[in-house]
Amino acid sequence: MLTPLINDLCIISNPNVTIKRNDVTVSLPGALCAIVADNLAAHSIRRFFKSFSSIHSCRFCVIRTGNLKVEFMCNSSSLRTVDKYNNQVSLASHEPFC
């Protein structure tokens, strides 16, 4: 289903694509800058798990799955960040497994 899009992206990423305008020829590579998708589509594109039964099912924030029906927007305190991730990894590495 995505083969035509992928083929087009490969073509525009080639730096040999030229644009001619007003006696000037410029070679510019193209790129994909954004993909708009819901969780299921975004997870499918990157081959992530498509089961949303975990405690935090949103990949953008840490709102609990049970609260997703009442909390419609992520605020800055609930967004996932690299610092929050590193902190969670640090905390998990110090917790006993039993």
Identify the overall geometry.
Answer: elongated
Mean pLDDT: 78
Number of strands: 2
Number of helices: 3
- The sequence of SSEs as H and E is HEEHH
Describe the structure.
This protein is α+β, with helices and mostly antiparallel strands and 98 residues long. The chain contains three helices and two strands. It has a two-stranded antiparallel sheet. A hairpin with a 2-residue loop joins strand 1 and strand 2. It is elongated, with a radius of gyration of 21 Å. The model has no long low-confidence stretch (mean pLDDT 78).
What is the topological layout?
Elements: H1 3-13, E1 18-21, E2 24-27, H2 39-45, H3 82-94
In short:
With about 100 residues, the chain is an alpha+beta fold. Helix content is about 30%, strand content about 10%.
Structural key phrases:
single chain; 3 helices; 98 residues; two-stranded antiparallel sheet; alpha+beta; 2 strands
